[in-house]
Amino acid sequence: MSDTTAHEEPELIQLLTPEGELTGHPDYPLDISAEEIRALYRDLVLVRRVDSEAVSLQRQGELGLWASLLGQEAAQIGSGRALGERDMAFPSYREHGVAWCRGIAPKELLGMFRGVTNGGWDPHEHGFHLYTIVIGSQALHATGYAMGVQRDGAVGEDGTAVISYFGDGATSQGDTNEAFNFASVNNAPVVFFCQNNQWAISESTERQSRVPIYKRAAGFGFPGVRVDGNDVLACLAVTRAALDNAREGNGPTLVEAFTYRMGAHTTNDDPSRYRASAELDEWKAKDPILRVRRYLENNGLADDAFFASVETESEAIGEQVRSECRALPDPEPLDIFHEVYAEPNVQIDRQRSEFAEYLASFEGAGAEGGR
Amino acid sequence: MGTNLTIGKAINAGLRASMEHDPKVLVMGEDVGRLGGVFRVTDGLHKDFGADRVIDTPLAESGIVGTAIGMAMRGYRPVVEIQFDGFFFPAANQTFTQLAKMRRRSAGKLSMPIVMRIPYGGGIGAVEHHSESPEAYFTHTAGLRVVTVANPEDAYWMIQQAVRSDDPVIFLEPKRRYYEKAEVDTAAPIEEATPMGAARVARHGTDATLLAYGPMVKTALQAAEADTDHSIEVVDLRSLSPVDYPTIVESVKRTGRLVIAHEAPLSGGPGGEIAARVTEECFYHLESPVIRVAAFDTPYPQSRLEEHYLPDLDRVLDGVDRAFAY
Ligand SMILES: Cc1ncc(C[n+]2csc(CCOP(=O)(O)OP(=O)(O)O)c2C)c(N)n1
C-alpha cells in the first residue's frame, strides 16, 4: 500500500476558518475590503437560492433534471470572481456559481435542464463556454483555446487566461490527462480547477485516484495546489494567483478545491444509498456561507439591515427563477433542423421540407385530429 | 499551365495555398512537423510556416481533436492529421460528441472550421489498424461533412475548399492512391473548381451507372473500360455527406442500373443508404436492383489476404454482370 491515498486531508490553503476567523495565508496575501467580502456573501447566498429554486422546479416537473451546486458555492464564486473580463471559462454542468459570475442569467441555465435548448448562451459574449456533459471533454477545449491565446500573443501582464472546471471523477478520464499534458508541453495559459466534492455520483474519490489529485500535476510538470474549497477567500486568492501566473506566460496550474457536494449528484440520485449522514453533518459544519456570515457578524462588518436586504433579494430571485422557468417557450418542431451546419446541406434541407409538409398536413385537422 | 502532381503532393500544395491565404490556418498532428507526416503530406510546411502554425502534438488523438476544437473557438482554422484511419478511434468521442454537435449546441454561435485529414483504406500491405475504411461512422454523424478524393485535381482544390468551410470536414485521403499523378492547373481561381459537395461524372455511359469514391474510383474506371459489352457510366461520389443525390439520380434515370463499389464493409456501409434512396427515387426507372460490391463484414484481414478482401476489378465486373442479369 502506498502511504498516501486520495482522501488524505493534507494542509489546505485556507484564509477563513469555519468559525469565521480570518487567518490569511503567507503565500496568498489577499487585499480585500469589507465591501468586497459582503459582495461575495451576497453572491453565495443568491446562487444557493437559484440552485434550491431549480431543485424545487425539478420536483414540480418544470425541469427534467438539475445538478445541484449545494456546498460548492465558495469554490465557484471564489474562482469565478477571480476571472477577468477577457478570461474564458470552460465549465462542466454544475458550475451555476461560475455562470453567475460571468453574467449568465439564471433562466439561461435552466433551458438545458428543461429541455428547450442544448446550450443557451453565447460563449464568446460571456467568456463562458457551454455546459459540457461528456466528462473531461472541456479540459481539452480549454487547453486548445489557451494555445490559441498564445498564438494571438495575448499572454503577458494584460493577457488572457483560461480556466477549465471539472470534478474529481473527471480526473480519471483520458481527456483530462491529455489536457494536462498538452497544456504542459505547450506552456499554455490555462488553469485546471478541479472541484473535488468527494463523490462522482456514488463513487468516492478513492475509486478515482490513489494519490491526492493536486499531486498529479507534478507528474505533468506544473504546480498543483489544494485549497479549502469551502473558503471563498482562499478560492479567490489561489485562483487569482494561478490565473495571473498563466496570464504572464508561466503555464498551467492545477487547483484542487477540496469541498463537498451537500446535495444529491442530480435530482435523479439518491445519496442515502452510498454515503453516511454523519459525513454530511461533518461538512455542514464547514458550510461555505456560514463562515463568511460569522466573519462579517463577529467583526461588525455587516448589520441586520444588510443581511435582510440580501434575504429580500434572494426572495426576489427565487420568484424570478420560478416565473422565468415556466415562461421558457418550447422550441418549434422545425428547430430540429436548425444550425446543424454552417453551410447549406441538401440532405437536411430536404428532410426539413418533407417534415414541414408533413406537419402542415395536420393544419386545420383540429387539436385532436393530429396525434 | 498545369503542374504534374501526385495526390499526396497536390494535398500538400493545397495546404500550402490555404496557409498562405489565411494566417489563421494551422496544421497539427503527430509527426507533421519536421518529418512532414508519415506520408510526407505536410512536407516543408513546418520549415516555411514555423512550429507555431505546424504543430507537432503529443501522441494523443483525443487531445489533438479536443485542442483543435478549443483553437477553433479562439478563431483558428486547424487542419488536423490523424496518422492512420485505425487511430481515429481514440478521438471518436471528441469528434462525435463535441466537434459534430458544437454548432447545434451553441444555436449557431460557434463554428467548427476544422478539417480532419485521415489517410484511409487498404491496399498498401500494412499491419493491422492501418487499413480501415471508417467512413460510415462519420456519415452517420450529423454535423460533419465527409469528403474523399480520387485524383490530384480534386485533392488540390478540395483540401482548400475544406479548409475554407465553416463546418467540420472529415477529409479522407485514399492512401494507396497517394502516388497517382496528373496535371493540375494550380493557377486557376478556386471559385472555378467543382464544389466540394458535388458528385462528378468521371466517365459517360448509357447502360449502367457505376458509383465509387476515393480509392475505388480508379478500379471503377478500369472496370468500365474492361466491360466492352456495355457502356458504363462512372460517377465519382466525392462527398459522402451530404450526398449529391440529384447527380446520381439523374445518371441512374438515364442508365437504368446502379452498381455501388466501396472498400468499407457491406453492412451499414454508405452503399446501403444510397441504394435505398435511389430505389425510392428511381423505382420505375430501374431495370435491376441496386447492386453493392463491398468489403466483407469482417475485420480488415492480414495483408496477405487483402487482395481478396478489397473489391478488385473482377469483383466490380462481377457486380456489373449481376446488374445485367435481370
Ligand atoms: C464520459 C461520461 N461518462 C459518464 C457520464 C455519466 N456521469 C455524469 S456525471 C458523472 C460523475 C462525475 O463525477 P465528477 O467528475 O467527480 O463530477 P461531479 O459530478 O462530482 O461534479 C457521471 C459518471 C458522463 N456524463 N460522461
TrEMBL record, chain A:
<protein>
    <submittedName>
        <fullName>Pyruvate dehydrogenase E1 component alpha subunit</fullName>
        <ecNumber>1.2.4.1</ecNumber>
    </submittedName>
</protein>
<dbReference type="InterPro" id="IPR050771">
    <property type="entry name" value="Alpha-ketoacid_DH_E1_comp"/>
</dbReference>
<dbReference type="GO" id="GO:0004739">
    <property type="term" value="F:pyruvate dehydrogenase (acetyl-transferring) activity"/>
</dbReference>
<dbReference type="InterPro" id="IPR001017">
    <property type="entry name" value="DH_E1"/>
</dbReference>
<keyword id="KW-0560">Oxidoreductase</keyword>
<feature type="domain" description="Dehydrogenase E1 component">
    <location>
        <begin position="44"/>
        <end position="317"/>
    </location>
</feature>
<keyword id="KW-0786">Thiamine pyrophosphate</keyword>
<dbReference type="InterPro" id="IPR017596">
    <property type="entry name" value="PdhA/BkdA"/>
</dbReference>
<dbReference type="GO" id="GO:0009083">
    <property type="term" value="P:branched-chain amino acid catabolic process"/>
</dbReference>
<keyword id="KW-0670">Pyruvate</keyword>
<dbReference type="Pfam" id="PF00676">
    <property type="entry name" value="E1_dh"/>
</dbReference>
<dbReference type="GO" id="GO:0000287">
    <property type="term" value="F:magnesium ion binding"/>
</dbReference>
<dbReference type="InterPro" id="IPR029061">
    <property type="entry name" value="THDP-binding"/>
</dbReference>
TrEMBL record, chain B:
<dbReference type="InterPro" id="IPR005475">
    <property type="entry name" value="Transketolase-like_Pyr-bd"/>
</dbReference>
<feature type="domain" description="Transketolase-like pyrimidine-binding">
    <location>
        <begin position="5"/>
        <end position="180"/>
    </location>
</feature>
<keyword id="KW-0560">Oxidoreductase</keyword>
<dbReference type="InterPro" id="IPR033248">
    <property type="entry name" value="Transketolase_C"/>
</dbReference>
<dbReference type="GO" id="GO:0003863">
    <property type="term" value="F:branched-chain 2-oxo acid dehydrogenase activity"/>
</dbReference>
<dbReference type="GO" id="GO:0000287">
    <property type="term" value="F:magnesium ion binding"/>
</dbReference>
<dbReference type="GO" id="GO:0009083">
    <property type="term" value="P:branched-chain amino acid catabolic process"/>
</dbReference>
<keyword id="KW-0670">Pyruvate</keyword>
<dbReference type="InterPro" id="IPR009014">
    <property type="entry name" value="Transketo_C/PFOR_II"/>
</dbReference>
<dbReference type="GO" id="GO:0007584">
    <property type="term" value="P:response to nutrient"/>
</dbReference>
<dbReference type="Pfam" id="PF02780">
    <property type="entry name" value="Transketolase_C"/>
</dbReference>
<dbReference type="Pfam" id="PF02779">
    <property type="entry name" value="Transket_pyr"/>
</dbReference>
<protein>
    <recommendedName>
        <fullName>3-methyl-2-oxobutanoate dehydrogenase (2-methylpropanoyl-transferring)</fullName>
        <ecNumber>1.2.4.4</ecNumber>
    </recommendedName>
</protein>
<dbReference type="InterPro" id="IPR029061">
    <property type="entry name" value="THDP-binding"/>
</dbReference>
